[in-house]
Amino acid sequence: MTIEKSDTDDSQLPAGLSATTEPPSLTLVVPCYNEEKMFSACLSELSFILNDLISQQKIKPGSFILFIDDGSKDDTWKLIKKSSIDKKPVRGLKLSKNQGHQVALMAGLSVVESDICISIDADLQDDTRCIYAMVEKYISGNDIVYGVRNDRSSDSFFKRLSANTFYKFMSYMGVNQVENHADYRLLSKRALDSLLTYKERNIYIRGIVPLLGFPSDKVFYSRAERLAGESKYPLRKMIGLAIEGVTSLTVTPLRIISSLGFITCIMAIMASVYALFEKVQGRTLEGWTSVMISIFFLGGVQLICLGVIGEYIGKIYIETKGRPKYFIEENVGDKEVE
Ligand code: UDP
Ligand code: MG
């Protein structure tokens, strides 16, 4: 599926600047999994905002909402199809089976061709009024605008606790992400193109976007309650997402093995001194000292060796991802002079 490209190719220009003075075209990217109860509210709210932005000439007419049906088992796809047939500003993609939010979102982002796109959940928990502020921040020169929740009081105690633990754990593991930002964000065409150069299969979008660089800003909002339907992120999926995030972005767990090895070796030295002291004092059974020393030393040495192997595996892992090394933000002057 292809989506209309704007008349001029502005993808290499800084955010907010287009070769013409035209407003940018916008795609709202909305992954949906079993969202039939939310669909009509979501559609009417998002189309209202789109039309409002078009009438204010902040975005181009023809901007639309792209719904991605992530293998829903209910009537979500029927509703998406119907609204696009009814000539609503809607396009749809249906994944053949449920792949999870991150994959569904990537599927949507990879077909976007508009000047800017904003990803948002279908449940309207993210304040849709931020879309105005995001577009403003793009116009004032930002390529990435993060929607950040500054108030989680509408979340259940359990959701708050698990979300806080999740962010703490991720940052402890060395994943650099914007705290309390999920996947509600604006991306300019060049930021999106850069994101799409990450070809890895296991992708944790929230951890990758901050790696892109480019001018960025945040808009803050308080998270509302889900209007209908239930959360598709139970604890099990949340743990899965955390494991995905950590293992796809850092080799910190492998480093922890090396550190454990060193700590065990230091403990082995102390334990050996103690064991020898006990032997000299004649308070040990025959063979105890040598067994103790070898257990500690071998444990430490093995962990260090595992850590070293881990370092190499980490390198192989990072290399196999074939990640881009850099992105050009601006390029001035005559190319031939370079
Ligand atoms: N979602 C999806 N695939 C999934 C799970 C969720 O596309 O396997 C969508 C869901 O329809 C919603 C968004 O991802 O638009 C966020 O899910 P949810 O609101 O259930 O998560 P929570 O806000 O509870 O973390
Ligand atoms: Mg939600």
Explain what the structure shows.
Residues about 1-10 have low confidence and may be disordered. This protein is elongated. The chain has two domains: about 1-250, Alpha-Beta Complex (Spore Coat Polysaccharide Biosynthesis Protein SpsA, Chain A); about 250-320. The chain has ten helices and seven strands. The protein is of the alpha/beta class and about 350 residues long. It has helices spanning about 35-55, 75-85, 100-110, 130-140, 155-170, 190-195, 205-210, 235-250, 250-280, 290-320; strands at about 25-30, 65-70, 90-95, 115-120, 145-150, 185-190, 215-220. Bound molecules: uridine-5'-diphosphate (UDP) and magnesium ion (MG). Uridine-5'-diphosphate binds near residues 31, 70, 104, 123 and 125. The site of magnesium ion (MG) has 5 residues, from loops.
Would you identify the regions where 5 or more consecutive residues have pLDDT less than 50? Answer: 1-8
* Beta-strand segment tally: 7
Q: Mind telling me the CATH class of the largest domain?
A: Alpha Beta
Helix content: 40-55%
**Rg over C-alpha atoms, rounded to the nearest angstrom:** 26 Å
Tell me the domain tally. 2
Strand order of the largest sheet: 3-2-1-4-6-5-7
Q: What's the end-to-end separation, in Å?
A: 38 Å
What would you call the quaternary organization?
A: single chain
Bound molecules: uridine-5'-diphosphate, magnesium ion
